[in-house]
Amino acid sequence: MVTADKRDDPTSRWLAQLTARVGWQKACVAMANKNARILWAVMTREEGFDPKHVSFKPPAKQSAAQRAAATWTA
Fold first, then answer.
1. What string of pLDDT tens digits covers the 74 residues of the chain?
2. Which ranges constitute the DSSP H helices of the chain?
3. CA 35, CA 17: separation in Å to the nearest integer?
4. Model-level pTM?
5. 31 CB neighbour count, 10 Å cutoff
6. Is residue 35 within 8 Å of residue 1, measured between CB atoms?
7. SS3 of the chain: helix, strand, coil, percent, to 5
8. 50, 56, 5: which is closest to 27 by C-alpha?
């Protein structure tokens, strides 16, 4: 975390911005959490780590009212 501001990779930029926003102690915990989640994903999926991976937010589920309206118009 000491050299994150001297690096240019996405994780280091994220960490430097986070440290400036919330302080080094919370940023340290956030980095540990991020590393644990990455490790878990690599172990369970049996795939290599891709530092350039960008996750996407899945589409929201439709409410019952939206589903009912869709059935009436179809």
1. 567 677 788 889 999 999 999 999 999 999 999 999 989 988 998 888 887 777 777 777 777 777 777 776 55
2. 10-22, 24-45, 64-73
3. 17
4. 0.62
5. 18
6. no
7. 65, 0, 35
8. 5
